[in-house]
Design brief:
By secondary structure, this protein is mostly helical. It has two domains: 147 residues, no CATH class; 153 residues, no CATH class. 68% of the residues lie in helices and 0% in strands. It contains 13 helices and no strands. α7 packs antiparallel against α13. The longest helix has 32 residues. The radius of gyration is 20 Å and the shape is globular.
Amino acid sequence: MLSRIAESLFWIGRYVERADGTARILDVHLERLNQLPVHEQRTVSANLLAVMGASTGEEDDDVAGLKDLLTRLAFDLSQPNSIAGALSAARENARRARETVSAPVWESLNATWNGLTGHRQDVVGTYRFCTWVIERTATVQGLADSTMSRDDSWQFLSLGRSLERADMTARMLATGDEDAFKLSWANMLRCAGAYESFLRSRRAAFGDSFAVEFLLLDRLFPRSVVSSLRQVEAALIALDPEYSRTGKMDAARRLVGQARTFLEFHHTDDLMGELPEHLERVQAACSGASDAITAKYFYRASDHAWTGEKV
């Protein structure tokens, strides 16, 4: 497979999952934000933008209000961390890999892109937009799973999706910080679509720590951090199944494996107190793994100066 095709597939998976995760997070926070006084809206909006990586780092971020939040996280086509920007980028990558992605996946992404500008950009319109995006991304992902062969093309798509999902779940948990956002454990679970699954697995055990433990460590729920990291490892193994008796592996698999095993085998009675450290470690592992995957699979000759032939 050409590296440019593999790279496009990887980023289709990432961008579609990013749009889905951002829509879920924004949808859960909008109701509370709309009920806050203006000065509190600005504080929470600025914190949420920073957590989602949409902050510019400029001083005017400190006075970002609800309108700025909606623009940057939902409708800004030039911002890859916004919903519209991510879906636009996913469609562009699908166009570049048109000969590899299935026709239903391309048609679904193209139809989604065509529908991005037909939404009201106020609070009510954003609610509906987030619901629409969650449905559209589920359609794209379902079509990819049901119409693409499980060859390298699908593995790269799955790799990008799973890597982004682990990162988005970590960001979602970061937005559950009680001081800055005051999200209840029930809303935190609904944000990940995990509420019913959590109730069936925990029954009478409710509370913030149980919800966080479920979203971090549950091996069976597909949006948990550990489950997502397992899916990343599975895709990396499928792409490069070489086995070494000394445990030698590529950088991406090592970073992801270290993050996963630390979570799985690090038992603590103070999960909430250590949560920021866990989330920072997961996000750092996802970022490092993405860089390692790019360096290994998406080599570009133009990035390296030709030194000429030695005489």
